[in-house]
Write a structure and sequence with these properties.
Pfam families: Mannitol_dh (PF01232), Mannitol_dh_C (PF08125). By secondary structure, the chain is of the alpha/beta class. The protein contains 21 helices and 15 strands.
Length: 479
């Protein structure tokens, strides 16, 4: 069993809400590297923000655990890297030891707060009270703690912190700060505290990117044999990671980023990086799914090993998606190359059907902005995005050969497609009429896409070829 006998602890400079796999394979893993490569010298006190005693606390292993990082490196080679992560000093169960949590507010060495309480964690509950032990919502718990720190240090400006949420919502730092201020108002806290929150603390919005595959249940015994010790908190993740933080230069200095080469970016605005990730990584997934699945492929890795599907993704990104984005071309090309490497990761079996959930909304958010930009630039719809849209419409027929597809989307779309495809099969409407009906839904798309130059005609032509010759042959012809 891991213990601190050979791993001295760092002074606690970080408080972290959330003990789950993602934070341990992302934030705590990066802090461990920073401690190793720089003078950061920062230990973490992890706060378990929910009322649960399962799994046991990280304290059983003195906060230590093994990260197993696997994937394709910069040289295109499969790699596996194991390390004992020793950045965590303790885990505090806030519902069982609220006093210990509040005592952390008196720690004058604390500099950073990180959090990942899921997308639902950053919320407001008007029933929360300052005297609760603890309050129910994460922002309320944080406000209780900040108020205690403000009181303990008499509002000292140098006792504020960098507060860095990792929840997957837009501008998470801005949203978290607003809820803290809302609780200060709800609880009638003094204006000087509000001023201290605003002036002494820096709330940073973030973009986080790493696939964390979690605890390796199926291979846990083998991995423990390989490392030579027991570790019930072992966690696995992909090789790639990116942490974009919207914050001041002072944050980069505080994290000692100039002393190492981690993929952490401190930027003025995370928006272009979010657009890049959504368009390139998520967009490639969404474009690939119906084409690859209907061509007989089941996983992302299998699609990347297929010459035609790999070419489809490469050309879609280089010729259609990237030209529609506003970041420097070299940076976009580099990110796209890293995405392809991630898709090729032999350690991750990413099922296409798992990505297909709510594909209609995903196409709207991930691909439609770039499709419309291409039309604006070129006067006609991009062929591969149009081809993917046709394949998606065919996917929602619910059949792959003789196999039924288990569709998962809003019931509205399931009903619409069932009715439209039945009408096509009965000869009551044409493929073009089906496409016209789908693209005319301005409530879903945000506009009537039948007014977009040649889009209905292009998508309809591809759909007809798919029905006549199959998706695989249609793909050969479009490339």
């Amino acid at each position: 069993m891991l213990n601190r006998e050979h791993y001295p602890a760092y002074p606690t400079k970080v408080m972290q809400f959330g003990e789950g796999n993602f934070m341990r394979a992302f934030v705590d893993w990066q802090l461990d590297l920073l401690n190793e490569q720089t003078k950061l010298n920062a230990g973490v006190a992890v706060i378990r923000p929910i009322d649960s005693q399962f799994p046991p606390l990280l304290n059983e292993q003195d906060g230590l655990y093994t990260s197993v990082i696997r994937g394709i490196n910069e040289q295109g080679e499969p790699v596996e890297e194991m390390r004992v992560v020793r950045s965590i000093n303790e885990e505090i169960a806030i519902y069982q030891d609220f006093e210990r949590y509040m005592t952390l507010a008196e720690n004058d060495e604390l500099e950073f707060i990180f959090s990942n309480t899921t997308e639902a964690g950053i919320s407001f509950n008007a029933d929360d009270k300052l005297t609760d032990a603890p309050a129910s919502s994460f922002p309320a718990k944080l406000t209780q703690w900040l108020y205690k720190r403000y009181q303990h240090f008499s509002g000292s400006q140098d006792k504020g912190l960098f507060i860095i949420p990792c929840e997957l919502i837009d501008y998470n730092g801005k949203k978290l700060k607003q809820y803290v201020l809302d609780y200060a108002k709800l609880w009638n806290l003094e204006s000087a505290f509000v001023a201290w929150v605003n002036e002494a603390n820096t709330f940073c919005s973030t973009l986080v990117d790493r696939i964390v595959t979690g605890h390796p249940r199926d291979e846990h015994a083998d991995l423990q044999d390989r490392v030579g010790y027991q570790d019930q908190f072992m966690v696995t993740a992909e090789y790639f990671y990116l942490f974009v933080i919207q914050g001041p230069k002072a944050l980069a200095e505080a994290l000692k980023l100039d002393e190492c080469d981690l993929n952490i970016k401190i930027v003025d605005d995370i928006k272009p990086y979010k657009e890049r990730k959504v368009a390139i990584l998520n967009g490639a997934h969404t474009a690939m799914v119906p084409v690859a699945y209907l061509a007989g492929i089941d996983t992302v890795g299998e699609a990347m090993a297929d010459d035609e599907l790999r070419q489809f993704v490469d050309v879609l990104l280089s010729d259609e998606v990237i030209p529609a984005l506003d970041l420097p071309r070299s940076e976009l090309d580099s990110f796209a190359a890293s995405v392809i490497q991630r898709f090729q990761n032999p350690y991750i079996k990413h099922q296409l059907m798992s990505i297909s959930l709510n594909s209609m909304t995903k196409f709207k958010t991930r691909l439609l902005p770039q499709l419309l930009r291409c039309v604006e630039l070129n006067g006609q719809p991009p062929k591969l995005m149009s081809f993917s849209l046709a394949a998606q419409i065919l996917f929602y027929r619910g059949k792959r050969g003789e196999q039924q597809i288990e569709l998962a989307d809003d019931q509205k779309w399931l009903d619409v497609f069932a009715e439209l495809w039945l009408a096509v099969e009965q000869g009551n409407i044409s493929c073009q009429q089906l496409v016209n009906a789908v693209l005319s839904d301005a409530e879903h798309w945000g506009q009537d896409l039948t007014l977009t130059a040649q889009l209905v005609e292009t998508v309809s032509q591809y759909l007809e070829v798919m029905l006549q010759q199959g998706v695989r042959q249609a793909l050969k012809e479009v490339l």
